[in-house]
Amino acid sequence: MADRRRINGPPGATIPPIYEDASDKSVVTRQPPRSRPANAIRQTYLKTGVTPSASGSAYLEVEMAGKPGVSGLKLSCTVHGPRSLPRSSLFSPHIILSTHVKFAPFATKQRRGYLRDPTERDLGSHLEAALRGAIIADRWPKSGVDIIVSIIEGDQDRETSRQQGDEAWDMMNTLSGCITVASAALADAGIDCVDTVAGGVAALVRDDADNGKPKIVIDPVPSEHDKIEAACCVAYLPTRDEITNLWFKGDMPDDDMATYMELVQQGIQASKHANRVLVQCIGETVG
Amino acid sequence: MASVTIPGQLLGPTSKYQPGPGTHIHQTNLYSSLLGVVHVSQPVKAPGPAKRLNKITPAPAPAELPTISVSRSGVSEKREVLPEVGNVVLCRVVRISPRQAVVAILICGDTVLDAEWQGVIRVQDVRATEKDRVKIYESFRPGDIVRAEVISLGDQANYYLSTAKNELGVIMATSEAGNTMYPVSWKEYRDPETGVSEARKVAKPF
Amino acid sequence: MATTQQVLLSPAELAYLHASLSLTPPIRPDGRAPNLFRPLVAETGILPGTNGSARICFADGTEAIVGVKAEVEKTRGADATEGGEDAEEDNNREGRSEWVELTVEIPGLRDDDSGTAFLSAMLQEALLADGGFARKLWINRRYHWKLYLDILLISPPLSYPLPLLSLTTHLALLATRLPRLKSEGDEDPFFDDDWAAAPYLYPRDKKSSKALARPPVTLLVMAVGRNIIFDPAKEELAVADVALAVSVGEAAETDDDKGKGKGRKLRLLSIRTIDPPSRLTPPGVPNASNAAYGAAGATQKQPEARMAEAEVVEGVWRAPRGGAKPLVMAALVQKALERGGVADEVLDALDGVDLG
């Protein structure tokens, strides 16, 4: 799909700057390693009701790492609806959920276009799966709700992409933020949910400082670790003890189920931490 | 008893309460499904056996339990309501055809709707008697405000509405001359200035 | 999205399906065992114009073609490091995920449909999970192969096409050969034009011509009640409590793995939850609230006095709510990774395909 509404330059004609390695390796300031404990998430700010014209809205911010050039995560979510479906659609006994995740053009190191690219669509599908398990869809027959998450600032390090050649680990953090912020916005909009769903990420990392022994941390920041072996993003319903969305990727060292179980368990822990922020935030809006 | 709940919060066992709006059942317990304030309402005593039973019905459930519900009032003014079967709605006639009148639903119960929902009053649902003689253009005109009851969720686009009751029908109408008219009979509105009568399915004034 | 397609089953049919799939052992509509795949017809090397190709046709009529094309591309940012120390050896080769481009085409769906994007992201993610695949595309420090994988579903998507697409991609990659490199070092690459001499992307044993390593496969697993069902058909997916796509690859055997039972040693590469279409199925109406059976008539209700929650009635279908217990998900993954289990059988079956 080409962007027909704007005049764009030829695609792929430019590349973001690549910084040369400092010739003297000893001068290179090594990134500060993770300072918080392995079982703590970064500080999170969440507020609902930020967009008056929407049925429900929320804003989420995750603190930046201490290092300059590393941005935190800033997400804004609006919920529109429930409203009537377009005339062309079929009868539905349930609410039709449509999720849109969009990076602002300036949110990441490489500038993004205005049209949604495959990564954004993929994130949207993940978000839809996570939320669809949480809402009680049969309360709203014949109606639709649009959930729009704008990523104002992506959780990214200027250096990371070059080191790992992959944005995928950032995507997991972004998705977990999207799930939490959308859940807050849904509660603000008054759409029936079985529980407050929140996202959490856990990763199996390998640090040179630990002699390359793999360990599991929650809410990983890729730039704080030497290598991420595997990671999982979990959308979890705390009171029901259920997972609505699980996204795992990476290279497990062996066919050992215990590592996988531990990783998911830690993901659930991260989600519980995020859920505490969520509950406190939406509880404050009343009263 | 008014306390704030968030979705997923335990409200009590199903053996103690009946589920009301804003709640859901999960494994014999009632949970909140909305961010809102909890209300418990005691059941109204049924006013004795009203009618002689004339058909076999399953034994009615013992509806003696208090109903627990979660409402959004006090949290937010914004709360969408969907028209439901059995609701009385106020709507404006958008266009008419020989078979049906297309209306836009404005108010559902006491709630002004935010979103626009479309409804249809079919020719056979206009009144309860002499259904075969009903003519839509003698019952509704575009711009009329109509009180109607929802009889079905309908198809993908329209709710199906009915005015086949005395208290349902046109409650506000404008004449061809552009004046607001007053009802004179169950099927007539009159213009106070020109004195011309126009045919409508008139709602019985309360 | 492909999973959210309208399922044309009535609530009664859904309830019946769900009940029969929850029995021990489950009774599937087509009589398969829970871990049995549908029969399929596979062939490779059908397109001479590609570097590798494959076609698979499932017994239910769904059919997919995959073509792999490779192009030489200049590595971005390579000039900056050029002329550095030449001593760096092969273990310094690093692949990048952008060297692989994978597209999925499903008839009847727009190419910007999020379901298609989800499928292609899932297949790509499994392929690149261990970083070893992108490393195969390294030519020298200035050039690399860019691999285009075009996955075409030719039939309408009669069931969730993920297993079919994954198996076809697997075969096409096994059959892929890249021209033999004749140049040396970091000079501009040129290749041997003898196709017969072209090495396979996944190297093979000289004698048995069996592949030594293999690309990953993605399995679709679902759970109904306490049963785990592999390769569900569309109707079965419509009553799933939870559905997972699990990508597994072959792991290298180490010495202490010997004697751990037969079958391959598998490793987990990726998991994604598939949104089961069961959440969008119409609910049944229990007799207690059915007006035709003398339930209290729906007389003038106040708005808000609706949504009377009904308790779950045995035999009346209701779309599942919420997610799945972590232990159920773990059981699904465990079953997929089992030594000598379904993934093993699938890989064995794919071994039997003549790679031409």
Automatic annotation (TrEMBL), chain A:
CDD domains: RNase_PH_MTR3. One of its GO terms (cellular component) is cytoplasmic exosome (RNase complex). It is found in: Cytoplasm; Nucleus. GO terms for molecular function: RNA binding. Residues 1-39 are annotated as: Disordered. SUPFAM superfamilies: Ribonuclease PH domain 2-like, Ribosomal protein S5 domain 2-like. GO terms for biological process: nuclear mRNA surveillance; poly(A)-dependent snoRNA 3'-end processing; rRNA catabolic process; rRNA processing; U4 snRNA 3'-end processing. Keywords: Cytoplasm, Exosome, Nucleus, RNA-binding, rRNA processing. Its main location: cytoplasm. Residues 41-191 form the Exoribonuclease phosphorolytic domain. Pfam families: RNase_PH. Belongs to the RNase PH family. PANTHER family: EXOSOME COMPLEX COMPONENT (PTHR11953), EXOSOME COMPLEX COMPONENT MTR3 (PTHR11953:SF2). This is 3' exoribonuclease family, domain 1-domain-containing protein. It comes from Cercophora newfieldiana.
UniProtKB/TrEMBL annotation, chain B:
One of its GO terms (cellular component) is nuclear exosome (RNase complex). It comes from the Eukaryota. Keywords: Cytoplasm, Exosome. It is found in: Nucleus, Nucleolus. GO terms for biological process: RNA processing. Its main location: nucleus. InterPro entries: Csl4 (IPR039771), EXOSC1_C (IPR019495), Exosome_cplx_N_dom (IPR025721), NA-bd_OB-fold (IPR012340), S1_domain (IPR003029). Residues 1-22 are annotated as: Disordered. The keyword Amino-acid biosynthesis does not apply. It holds the Pfam family EXOSC1. GO terms for molecular function: RNA binding. Residues 84-164 form the S1 motif domain. The keyword Transport does not apply. PANTHER family: 3'-5' EXORIBONUCLEASE CSL4-RELATED, EXOSOME COMPLEX COMPONENT CSL4. This is S1 motif domain-containing protein.
TrEMBL record, chain C:
It comes from the Eukaryota. One of its GO terms (molecular function) is mRNA 3'-UTR AU-rich region binding. It is found in: Cytoplasm; Nucleus, Nucleolus. Residues 76-95 are annotated as: Disordered. GO terms for cellular component: cytoplasmic exosome (RNase complex); nuclear exosome (RNase complex); nucleolus; ribosome. One of its GO terms (biological process) is nuclear mRNA surveillance. The keyword Ribonucleoprotein applies. Keywords: Cytoplasm, Exosome, Ribonucleoprotein, Ribosomal protein. The keyword Amino-acid biosynthesis does not apply. PANTHER family: EXOSOME COMPLEX COMPONENT RRP42, EXOSOME COMPLEX EXONUCLEASE RIBOSOMAL RNA PROCESSING PROTEIN. Belongs to the RNase PH family. This is Ribosomal RNA-processing protein 42.
